[in-house]
From TrEMBL:
The keyword Secreted does not apply. GO terms for molecular function: lyase activity; peptidase activity; single-stranded DNA binding. This is Abasic site processing protein. It holds the Pfam family SRAP. Belongs to the SOS response-associated peptidase family. The keyword Transmembrane does not apply. PANTHER family: ABASIC SITE PROCESSING PROTEIN HMCES (PTHR13604:SF0), DC12-RELATED (PTHR13604). Keywords: Covalent protein-DNA linkage, DNA damage, DNA-binding, Hydrolase, Lyase, Protease.
Length: 199
């Protein structure tokens, strides 16, 4: 599961190297450059398919509206995403990557634990998007946790390598392969400030 992640200035700089002047492109989007937590229903920068088979940055809202259950779906299991009627068309044709400096989970003592990749400004979480009432909404795919989660949680985001982002988004023939892939090992750091599990 992933219910909170963080963006920061170092991550932003890496994305500017890939896409150019993001500050101009998204001048109306205000966020804390020293580090901002992204929670469900917040907007965040994502990477999608653009024109001419290129990758493009976009702002989307986190969470798919679920009117039946009157809730917001923020994660989907990668193992079954192509089987679920609610997800399969989007996973097949509207894939994206969600860049983050780190994401968070909470251990049994409700301590906040940050997961990141040491020496890398960003990690990339595989996801997909669907139309919402006010634009596009995204969902993060999760998979079985690897050993780097250290027993904190039995699920984790489907993290992919930066070099795999293009193929995940643009190469539909490899979708099933990515969905069964194993994320890289991550580093973790505990935050001993007591924080709420809830949004």
């Amino acid at each position: 599961m992933c219910s909170r992640f963080c963006i920061d200035q170092e991550m932003w700089r890496e994305l500017k190297e890939l896409f150019g002047d993001l500050d101009r492109m998204f001048s109306g989007w205000k966020w804390n450059r020293s580090g901002q937590d992204i929670r469900p229903t917040n907007q965040s920068l994502v990477i999608t398919a653009g024109e001419d088979n290129r990758l493009a940055p976009a702002l989307q809202r986190w969470g798919l509206p679920d009117s039946y259950h009157k809730s917001t779906i923020i994660n989907a299991r990668a193992e079954t995403a192509l089987e679920k009627r609610m997800f399969r068309d989007s996973v097949a044709s509207r894939r994206l990557a969600v860049p983050a400096a780190r994401f968070y989970e909470w251990d049994r003592e409700k301590q906040k634990v940050a997961f990141y990749r040491k020496g890398r400004p960003a990690l990339y979480m595989a996801g997909f998007y669907s139309p919402g009432e006010e634009g596009w909404n995204f969902c993060i795919l999760t998979t079985e946790a690897n050993s780097s989660m250290g027993g904190v949680h039995d699920r984790m985001p489907l993290v992919i390598e930066r070099e795999q982002v293009r193929d995940w988004i643009l190469d539909g023939d490899r979708t099933a392969e990515f969905l069964t892939g194993r994320p890289p090992q991550l580093d973790q750091e505990r935050d001993y400030e007591q924080l709420s599990l809830f949004w």
